[in-house]
Write a structure and sequence with these properties.
By secondary structure, the chain is of the alpha+beta class. The chain contains eight helices and 13 strands. It has an eight-stranded mixed β-sheet. A five-stranded mixed β-sheet has the order 7-8-9-10-13, with helices on one face. α2 runs antiparallel to α3, α6 crosses α8 and α7 packs across α8.
Length: 290
């Protein structure tokens, strides 16, 4: 059997997450286990205000999580508007493995999590409650363009067998409307992969990413022969064309093909990604449009 070098890539500067997944891959873990446990590091980190516990709430004060996961066979699971569990990615994996469905939302996702043995948790921390109380004074909805080190984590891994898995998890945009779901849990937008081709993940303004189905687009362009870099650039250019106000927000993609080549592109300066390869865990600045 051909021997592959394991590889992990992830959005933003989350070294602990890529280190966790990369080490697991080095020790022979499956890509699926590695992506799940890798992103769980950020879900559990309460300093990170846009993933998992400690994530910023919506306008009503609810912390609601969105996450999805895909395995090398193309199976997928997702949860949206999950309110009471830190590890949305693990609930998403259970949706993939234990139900006939792909997405569970809100109350149903919550009920399913309890049935699967996930205990109810409080996701609003003291710090995010305090920031929310501050926000209430002005109630301005202004998503921050880049929140370095503190944003949605999307991760792709190749394991020693050469199989690819991916995951994406987020508390979504801070102070979003109650009920809002972003791109992160939507297969094809926040994440897509095809084990014969490669995968892509997204971060940034979910509404723009959703409208372009960007991760699916990137994988399809790679299928047609584009490099991961060329494919990411094409997806960002599509978003720029669709959104005259593109200067006001960030949208970023990373992609990886079956050969382990990486690409990354975003609208504006400031986005970076982690790459764990051959025992080295490094952060790279992404190329950007302006
Ligand atoms: N894409 C996420 C969302 O729109 C947020 C982010 O990545 O910053 O929910």
């Amino acid at each position: 059997m051909e021997s592959f070098k394991p590889l992990c890539v992830a959005t933003w500067n989350f070294p602990n997450a890529s280190q966790k997944a990369g080490k697991m891959l080095d020790q022979g873990a499956s890509a699926l286990d590695a992506v799940e446990q890798g992103v769980m590091v950020e879900e559990a980190d309460i300093r990170n205000t846009t993933v998992g516990r400690g994530g910023a709430p919506d306008r009503e004060g609810n912390v609601t999580l969105d996450a999805c996961i895909m395995d090398p066979s193309g199976n997928a699971g997702a949860v949206v508007y999950l309110k009471n569990n830190t590890h949305a990615v693990s609930v998403a994996r259970k949706v993939m493995e234990e139900t006939p469905h792909v997405i569970l939302a809100g109350e149903g996702a919550d009920q399913f999590a309890r049935q699967q043995g996930f205990e109810k948790e409080e996701l609003l921390t003291e710090a995010s409650e305090k920031a929310y109380q501050e926000w209430l004074k002005k109630k301005e909805y202004k998503p921050i363009i880049n929140i370095e080190n503190h944003d949605t984590i999307g991760m792709l891994c190749i394991d020693q067998k050469g199989d690819i898995a991916g995951a994406c998890t987020s508390s979504g945009l801070s102070y979003k409307m109650n009920g809002r779901v972003g791109d992160s849990p939507i297969i094809g937008s926040g994440l897509f992969l095809d084990n014969e081709v490669g995968g892509a993940v997204a971060t940034g303004m979910g509404e723009a990413i959703l409208k372009s189905v960007g991760s699916f687009l990137i994988v399809e362009l790679m299928r047609q022969g584009r490099s991961p870099q060329e494919a990411c650039e094409a997806a960002v250019m599509r978003i720029i064309k669709q959104n005259p106000n593109y200067k006001d927000f960030q949208a970023a993609f990373i992609a990886m093909n079956k050969k382990g080549e990486i690409g990354s592109y975003c609208i504006q300066k400031g986005f970076s990604y982690m790459e764990y390869r051959a025992g080295e865990n490094r952060n790279f600045a992404s190329k950007y449009y302006f």
